[in-house]
Amino acid sequence: MVESTLTMVQSIRQDLLCDSLAWRADTGGVDSVPRVDIPGPYVGSPPRGRVAAAATAFPCHGVVNESVRVRAAAALRPFVAWYTGYRQGGFPAAQHRGMPSPYLTLIFTLDDVLTVAGHPDPRQAPGNYDTLLGGLHTSPALITHEGRQSGIQIALHPLGARALLGLPAGELANTDLPADAVLGRVCGELQARLQAADSWPERFAVLDKLLLRATSPYGGVPPEVARAWQLLIRTGGAVPVSALADEVGWSGRHLADRFRRETGLTPKAAARVVRFDRARRLLAAGAGRSELPRLADVAAKCGYFDQAHLAREFRSLAGCAPSTWLAEEFRNVQAPSGAPVEGWLQQEPNQY
């Protein structure tokens, strides 16, 4: 299925890729390819079927830009949301923001190390990583590259961390560390086999096999925490914390404590992250079509009070305004008025 989809995409896009790559020459980052950020009916819902997104850019003037996203094997889906394979080369050096999201991040590099210039916790020193495991966070990571990068990023469900990682996601909150510090020897085997594989389908098959082998029976996730998390995801972060507490039958304080220990975030912080993740994916999806939705429309769809509320939350969680992020990630994308993204500031109130 994955092989046939890639072949189809290649045959359709081969003649158009040189021109389409020109406006992406300054973008960078693991999840910056527009076709990869596909919003579902609610946050955390990948498109149906195994292949969520597939795009392969052929070498053109020395530029290579490949991105493929697929769902994990069915047996892994309680723990793994999706895999994203990426390979980019021939680009200018760039910096990318690793945004807060409702997933833990697991990265295996293929050719070059991953350089993290700034971690969500500013007390953590910059560093280079062959593999990286990151917990939930409420501020961006800053990732730099010198024009090329390749690897596979795996989105992990927080409530599946005990089964796959052997510890609750709360122990990884706001932290990046080499993945072998948690996964142990299987981490080295995974990376070696991923680097030896010849295609994305082969690499995804390796992940399915070895990650499934690494899972173990788990318990310890309170059903009340699981229920609260599911409600946050299902509503896109729009449910009040008091309603969550009433739903699970706990006091707000007890829910906040147990929820934070399990996921790394309080219910209120998790709601902010879930809502923000949905909003920025809607913006990215529009950028991929070279047309941006109005901030007021995104704010209304994602449960913000108004566009000023969205702009403040975006700056707080991303470290920049929406227009700045879009200008960094998607060059030459047109705003609703027809002006470039850089001229989209009139939609963003000044009161941050």
Can you describe what's shown?
The structure is a single chain. This protein has 352 residues and is of the alpha+beta class. Helix content is 39%, strand content 19%. The chain has 13 helices and eleven strands. α7 crosses α8 and α10 crosses α11. The N and C termini lie far apart (47 Å). Mean pLDDT is 81; it is low at 1-48 and 332-352.
Cα Rg: 20 Å
- Bulk shape: globular
SSE class = alpha+beta
Q: Approximately what portion of the residues adopt beta-strand conformation? A: 15-25%
Low-pLDDT residue spans: 1-48, 332-352
Distance between the termini: 47 Å
Number of strands: 11
Instruction: Please state the average pLDDT score.
Output: 81
Binned, the helix content reads 25-40%
SSE series: HHEEEEEEEEEEHEHHHHHHHHHH
Number of helices: 13
Strand order in the sheet with the most strands? 1-2-3-10-5-8-11
Major sheet size, sense and barrel closure: 7 strands, antiparallel
Helices and strands in order, then pairings?
Layout: H1 2-13, H2 17-22, E1 51-60, E2 63-70, E3 80-89, E4 94-98, E5 104-109, E6 114-118, E7 127-129, E8 131-134, E9 141-145, E10 149-156, H3 161-165, E11 176-177, H4 180-183, H5 185-196, H6 200-214, H7 223-234, H8 241-248, H9 252-263, H10 267-288, H11 295-302, H12 307-318, H13 322-329
Antiparallel strand pairs: 1-2, 2-3, 3-10, 4-9, 5-8, 5-10, 6-7, 6-9, 8-11
Helix pairs in contact: 5-6, 7-8, 7-9, 7-10, 10-11, 10-12, 11-12
